[in-house]
Amino acid sequence: MRTVIAARLPRDPANDHTRDMAEARRRVVGEATGVTLEHVGAFSFDPAVVRGNIEGFGGVAQVPLGFAGPLLVDGEHALGEFFVPLATSEGTLVASYGRGMRLTREAGGITTTVIDDVMQRAPVFVFCDARAARAFGGWVDEHFDDIRAVAEATDSFAHLVRIEQYAVGKMRFLRFDYTTGDAGGQNMVTKATHAACAWMTGQGLSGLEHFTLSGNLDTDKKHSAVNNLHTRGKRVVAEVTVPAALIEQVMHTTGAALYHQRQLSNMGSLLAGAVNNGAHYANGITAMFIACGQDVANVAEASAGFSYTELRENGDYYFSITIPSLIVATCGGGTELPTQRECLEVLGCFGPGKARKLAEIVAATVLCGELSLGSAIVSDQWVSSHESFGRNPPPST
Amino acid sequence: MRTVIAARLPRDPANDHTRDMAEARRRVVGEATGVTLEHVGAFSFDPAVVRGNIEGFGGVAQVPLGFAGPLLVDGEHALGEFFVPLATSEGTLVASYGRGMRLTREAGGITTTVIDDVMQRAPVFVFCDARAARAFGGWVDEHFDDIRAVAEATDSFAHLVRIEQYAVGKMRFLRFDYTTGDAGGQNMVTKATHAACAWMTGQGLSGLEHFTLSGNLDTDKKHSAVNNLHTRGKRVVAEVTVPAALIEQVMHTTGAALYHQRQLSNMGSLLAGAVNNGAHYANGITAMFIACGQDVANVAEASAGFSYTELRENGDYYFSITIPSLIVATCGGGTELPTQRECLEVLGCFGPGKARKLAEIVAATVLCGELSLGSAIVSDQWVSSHESFGRNPPPST
Amino acid sequence: MRTVIAARLPRDPANDHTRDMAEARRRVVGEATGVTLEHVGAFSFDPAVVRGNIEGFGGVAQVPLGFAGPLLVDGEHALGEFFVPLATSEGTLVASYGRGMRLTREAGGITTTVIDDVMQRAPVFVFCDARAARAFGGWVDEHFDDIRAVAEATDSFAHLVRIEQYAVGKMRFLRFDYTTGDAGGQNMVTKATHAACAWMTGQGLSGLEHFTLSGNLDTDKKHSAVNNLHTRGKRVVAEVTVPAALIEQVMHTTGAALYHQRQLSNMGSLLAGAVNNGAHYANGITAMFIACGQDVANVAEASAGFSYTELRENGDYYFSITIPSLIVATCGGGTELPTQRECLEVLGCFGPGKARKLAEIVAATVLCGELSLGSAIVSDQWVSSHESFGRNPPPST
Amino acid sequence: MRTVIAARLPRDPANDHTRDMAEARRRVVGEATGVTLEHVGAFSFDPAVVRGNIEGFGGVAQVPLGFAGPLLVDGEHALGEFFVPLATSEGTLVASYGRGMRLTREAGGITTTVIDDVMQRAPVFVFCDARAARAFGGWVDEHFDDIRAVAEATDSFAHLVRIEQYAVGKMRFLRFDYTTGDAGGQNMVTKATHAACAWMTGQGLSGLEHFTLSGNLDTDKKHSAVNNLHTRGKRVVAEVTVPAALIEQVMHTTGAALYHQRQLSNMGSLLAGAVNNGAHYANGITAMFIACGQDVANVAEASAGFSYTELRENGDYYFSITIPSLIVATCGGGTELPTQRECLEVLGCFGPGKARKLAEIVAATVLCGELSLGSAIVSDQWVSSHESFGRNPPPST
């Protein structure tokens, strides 16, 4: 039963982002498939606003959105309480993050810190041999100011911080590190690096055989060790110390039990070759990204991270999460779309100067989810399996 | 300037998924933040339908949705042409995937194959020493039928295929592998494994000190080497051979140039420690996941993958992508939400018996995006930098 | 100053392993380079014994060899006390391992457990497409008994346990898992797998385009995630619980301090993307491998591993190490060489039936080195830096 | 059958490195185990020379040593032809490397390039929170000159090049990068970093809770992603272009066949999560390390690497290997031991100013082994399995 579609999607080169064109496309799709696209067509805005965001516009995905919080953040950019919009279809997700927000609020709030902020494009230059590639490396260092000038001339927000260099064989991979204001910046750095490389390759580089604008060391839309070490987007930490009494009262477990679970999770992660020793960073990040007009595909990078905890002598529990590659924007991309802008505004994160604030709120939210799910795993075990094996207390307590 | 929020989000224990409660929450959030949530509130369905999908429901994120295609798939489950709904705010994404769809359609379509299909929950059992842990491993093998019976009794769709075993120190990590019908299955396998483990720990396991339902070897919502090797969700391959003439005509480059770029991308990926040697699998997957009601956080797993290509003597180019951990559902989760269901129906992928079909369409879409972006990188280089270094032809051509 | 060598190394096709031929080669090398190879020529055995072990034989490397111990092992194969021969030129190595042996002996000895035992060869079969590759996977399962019969016919010690299967694109990687008696087994499994594959490719496999005996998934002489998960050689665990008093007395630190260091080391390893969260497994393994005639290049695999520890309430410290890929032999290879055999005999590990015993002794030795170096790092800090920052007690104690 | 050893190893605090003490230890070990340590005791030098290299000295491991070559190197430090000493007990190893040396010599020799040269110690500083840790990062940058002065005062050969910084949670991992003259340098950098850190922690660092000299980010005696990216020891490349005719004549295969195998090996490595996409770098490195008095445990790091190749239009084959973490010494450690020194002298690599030369020779040797084994795999397949599936030519040729 092979599906054959004779029709083609209509397109109006003059003005393709209109209600008429959207309807025309829904009609073609609907007729070809027998589906009535009623809800997809039920959007609340003028399609002109999505020009630059999408091609072949036909309507919207309506993703359920819930609010959690207040989340109490003690950040350098985000300070105070926030209702957090989460767009998801996974039941219990909002409730679980909400429970973590209650716990951390009662614990005095979450401290957040943006440690690094950098966006990359990583071209590769192939030379006739390794020596020419190495010489080029020196040339790049010497001409950094020139290269930066060319790169930065392409966009007033692109600031070239440094150029990392990596060498294999006769190749030289450069990793251009930029700050990009409050935009995600992927396109900005591509354009800037393209200009820089055009200038560089125009200087008569000795022994150059080949150049390409990306050699997969960026690494865009995928996790990598180099991102873990050197950041892509924001590197952000969220920390909290939860009093022992609160853990028992809200989470029905103990710091000691959570700490023991941490040991096991660390071993499981090392054994699995996992990119994150935590539970489910990706859940909260994804739900906030959809709600807030972020580039959701960057969950590929943002899902990596490090959970580090300490058990105090008095039973209090220090918990931190580090997200090394959190790419967020409060300008450009999807941030000005109608619902997305409203959600950013709810967080006080719409527009210039807000990207680090948004990064802090995301990190604080992730921490809440880790505490909540981690406790759920441990306490469930504690209760339901108590009779069968609970007589052996956890060894490290 | 610390934000203080005195208000709390209202909740109606009796019936929380109503227009009134959604509005009440928007009002509280709006008053606390000074934001009018007009568009978030402009959803087109009865909130009762999102019961089970979200808590604290306040409205929707309207994510722009475009159509690309037709995509021509020669699958075992997906056969024929499809209009593909993509929800995104990243400009050029739909156009780029559309270009790849045109190329592959003219090349005769994309062959897709689901190689494996399995969902996991991975508890860890800690014993008094490594010998007791090893003995337990043997016990599990001997009692597999019993364990399976208990696990499968929890859900008629959960079928326990096997239990992988991994050993470190005095721990035994079990990785329960299930098929879960056409649901994503994460919750199903948690419940089934919980029951199985309760039965197991009730058998008086010799030397058991501790048990926990997840020891981070699942690995859920994060990439891992074990997932790459052993699949999480569907393992799916998409393949196409593009005639030389078509590459030049549509993509403005050659198979030889693409093949040379593949060598560089492989090295960049190995050097970076990247989880994917391709370009941007995550983009297409994310856009389809949002449109089609999938668990979008699973982009964390699905963003990993392998691109393998061959250059034929006649210049034709064989291109394949493998996604080892693609988690898709056509039942449950967000699949029955209004816009999401419409998009699944457009693909003929709504309801039971359709998950593998959906996996095939996603994989074919990913392949189109890889061909399109890969060609764009290569051809741009070819044109713009031709004068400066193009006199040296790429070495492998 | 380019070195030119006109001479060629002599070779006697009839009998190349003689004192005369060794001397002839030393003379040629000596004359070409102006070096007198006095010590290299001072070996104590008839060169005939190294036939099969080396070509171009010219003498020996005399690697200093020290004894440490007694090491007290409570293994299933190694039981009691052992003097451990360690060949190294790194000062303090023998002393440090010796200190750990004293500590663990006073703690009652080290429990060792061989968990798995398997050696691999991993051919790859390339088909016309992914479906043919998948079908081949099923064919392999169906014909496992036939394949095993062919493979095992090549060597009475080769026993084919299972064939793991891994799929990417149109390739099927098979990972043949054998036990190989008390030999290292790499050559044995190559020969057996070669025979098996010759039989397989002779069956007219549908769609087969290409076959090669190794597709780098073995993975031989290099670490890999698949080895970490599925073992190469012996998977062996060593465990000890050290009383609090003993840690203070012998190691001048505390279990709490060691446990805190473990947390930091885990994070460092995860961040670094390291293949071992311990300190220096490779040191002890290498020194034993050289002394005992093992294939020292397998340090590449054996250097990976997992340290897992627990702090008891009373301050006692449970410490375990797991080596997932320890390749050892007590037959074949270099085990019958004169000094190497003597060292194996000192351990009671020469000849058939002893490989697991040797694996246990190596693992116990590694554990001693980890305790010793780990304590040295922690106690040094504790003492020397006490005044400057010791007023802040370690947070987790 | 538990082995009990009542005796203890004798030790002479005044002068432990004598023939008498060595014999005394052999006697104790011999009596305890019933083994006559004849060959272990047959060393040719005064034990006084191994003072500083080993404790508990009892004799030597005599490792068979063969010569291969001449190897033709076109390096910046190694120039001309060399006989290469290889200490091993693995039959065919020397012959196989020798075959690669013949091939590359006839191809005009191997170009070698040392790209980077750096040795590390990586302390971790734990603070009260992430902000204090971040502030410390800035402090380190500001005080780099002071830190360097303190570090370099400990050893005239230690030069502190830079301090890399890595951040997780409230921790700051510093990775001190030194050049260390022609010594391996691990102890040198430990001492230098210890002094630097003592000075740093003495400056009253705000919020410092804990410090430890190594947090497993060095990463010593184990492979890591950070080493792959940033080098440990020498980063060295070896390159050769082998004419098509020579491949057929010497290796009985073709560049096209080797290139196809390279594609499969790359995929296998990516799938396996392997630290090396080549065949057996570790074999040649280990054999040279044993012969030449290197720290053989560093095979753990040196076994990682990257093979990158290109197939020319005329069938010539460009082959390169990159070893990112090759730790070699021509001073200190085991380099002055009798046989080891002779072997270094054979290479013209004994003493100051020779470490990079040695690195180049090792890399060139590794390249020979890769070409030889790679060809053996491919050609064997080609011949023996020709009838069954050879009718399908390899797809990329």
Task: Furnish the topology, listing elements before pairings.
The structure is a homotetramer of 397-residue chains.
Chain A lengths: L18 H15 L23 E18 L4 E9 L5 H14 L3 E12 L2 E4 L2 H13 L1 H9 L6 E10 L2 E9 L6 H16 L6 E5 L12 H6 L2 E10 L1 H8 L3 H18 L8 H11 L7 H4 L3 E6 L5 E10 L11 H9 L8 H30 L1 H4 L8
Parallel strand pairs in A: 1-3
Antiparallel strand pairs in A: 1-2, 3-6, 3-8, 4-6, 4-7, 5-6, 8-10, 9-10
Helix pairs in contact in A: 2-7, 2-12, 4-5, 9-12
Give a verbal description of the structure.
Four copies of one chain form a homotetramer. The first copy, chain A, has 397 residues and is an alpha+beta fold. In chain A, 40% of the residues lie in helices and 23% in strands. Chain A is globular, with a radius of gyration of 25 Å. The first copy, chain A, contains 13 helices and ten strands. Residues 381-397 of chain A have low confidence and may be disordered. In chain A, a hairpin with a 2-residue loop joins strand 5 (159-168) and strand 6. Strand 1 of chain C pairs antiparallel with strand 1 (57-74) of chain D.
